[in-house]
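Friendly challenge for the regulars: who can give me the structure tokens for this chain first? No prize, just bragging rights.
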Amino acid sequence: MISDFTEHIQTVLRVLPDRPGVYQFFNEEKNIIYVGKAKNLRNRVSSYFSNFSQHTGKTRLMVRQITDIQYIITASDLEALLLENSLIKKYQPRYNINLKDDKTYPHIIIKQEAFPRIFATRQPEEHSTEMYGPYANVGAMRSVLNLIKQLYKLRTCNLNLSEENIAKGKFKVCLEYHIGNCKAPCVGLQSRSDYDESIAQIRRILKGNLRELSRHLQTKMMESAAEFRFEDAQLIKERLEELEKFRSKSVVVNNDMEDMEVYAIQSDPGTAYITYFRVSDGAIIQAFTNEIKKKLEETDEELLVFAILELRRRFQNPAKTIVVPMEIELPVEGIRILVPKLGDKKKLLDMAETNNRFYVKDKQRQLAIKDPERHTDRILEQMRKDLRLTELPRHIECFDNSNFQGDYAVSACVVFRDAKPSKKDYRIFNVKTVTGPDDFATMEEVIYRRYNRMLMENSELPQLIVIDGGKGQLGAALNSLEKLGLRGKVAIVGIAKRLEEIYYPGDSLPLYIDKKSESLKVIQHMRDEAHRFGITNYRKRHQKGLIKTELHGIEGIGEKTAEALLFHFRSVKRIKEASREEIAEVIGPAKAAIVTNYFQQNDPPQT
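First reply, four minutes later:
Bragging rights claimed.
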């Protein structure tokens, strides 16, 4: 059972993401004892602990040694497979099987020769070939090779097609030429430049640039259809669908990539989180996330430079290329700093940033479990900073109006304490003084009523008031605070355009909160609650209003009687169609006579 393991392990298991990736188990000496892959990290890792008694003796022995768990998020389970392969070869964990070299997976080869051949192999000759891979999905690899063969008509023979041999006429065309699979460069029917152009396009495809090939296939498909060669068009369509499913290579492995370091960073008011990848021989062989406590108002650029220098010293990495998400000035000679926008390096940076985000989320969730008070204070401090407040907003109230063309107008007030809903403090206001759909007047009335009562009852005022609306609603709320002598004593903001704009009193320009900020998440939750609470109560009032318009015009029939009739018959139409005896069973014979007589006089049956 999970409850039998340490509190730290239990906490980590609770916050694992539902994402593919690679997990690493550490023992008490901080050594990696096992590396595994998972389509779903939460389910896979949890299974070691929840089904402990069902494991073999060796697995139980390993699980008892686990003191920490770390993981790396990947974009797919195929990438997880390749990354697992890299990490096992790097660390040789005690409980993993011994892996051989990259020949466990096939490569696609471009042979370095005149008129290069392209083929798959598990035994690449590194000094005389270009290698792409390794490929975990052999079927996908064969699919792309078939596509290349169909589109580019390359040679498959192993002849020495030197210019001298071709000029001497040593070769003759073979069956591949006659059936249209080769353009016969061996006898000079295809030029070297034309062949090399095909190879250049294939290189782009193997590096992941599938857009060009997709456009080519689509053009060929349309041409075939226009010429009524529908079977050919269907075949190309099927190839195109295969291509869409294909992932030519993993971002985890690329043999053409030089050794490098990849860094990602994000920070909150007190801490910066730096994720580090070490890439060697085209594979990620090390992943690490470090925390840096801020002392002053250091920028992300300053913190990143500090982290790079420290981590390079710690891991003794001689890589000359560093990939980062922003321009920095690193006081080290001979180092190339890259901020990629596209390609393999950008994919690696994206993976590092994804892992960084999940690491921070997990830390926050663990903090919420272990120390909820500290977790709350951190969120409130972030809100104080983002919203430019003078104190922590421990008590926040948010207002939202609901009406339909001014009828049955209500305004909802939801209360959050320590960034969480306090539903017992929610209030609904039935608007009394406003006629018609007037959001500004409604807001002015409700704000005055709410805080006038709180002043009369000597209740604690909130540190922040949130108005669902722009400058107009905010101005109306300020009018009421002015009348009550509270303007400037309670912080108030207006939220408009899907929470993208925050308006402040006296400031014509709005503030935009970072969409990833926890402050925005709290405000979104608050606004959703206010909208839900307001709509729910508006519907109740509206429904009650409909009952009155239909039945309360009958003299002698009260609200409870009308509700009883509607509850039983479900609609006024059915009440009209019911007999006096059926109605009497619900409200008694005397009131039944009043109802039936009224409908007979005011709604006679059609003839």
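The two ends are 76 Å apart (CA to CA). Confidence is low (pLDDT under 50) at residues 99-103, 247-252. Your move, everyone else.
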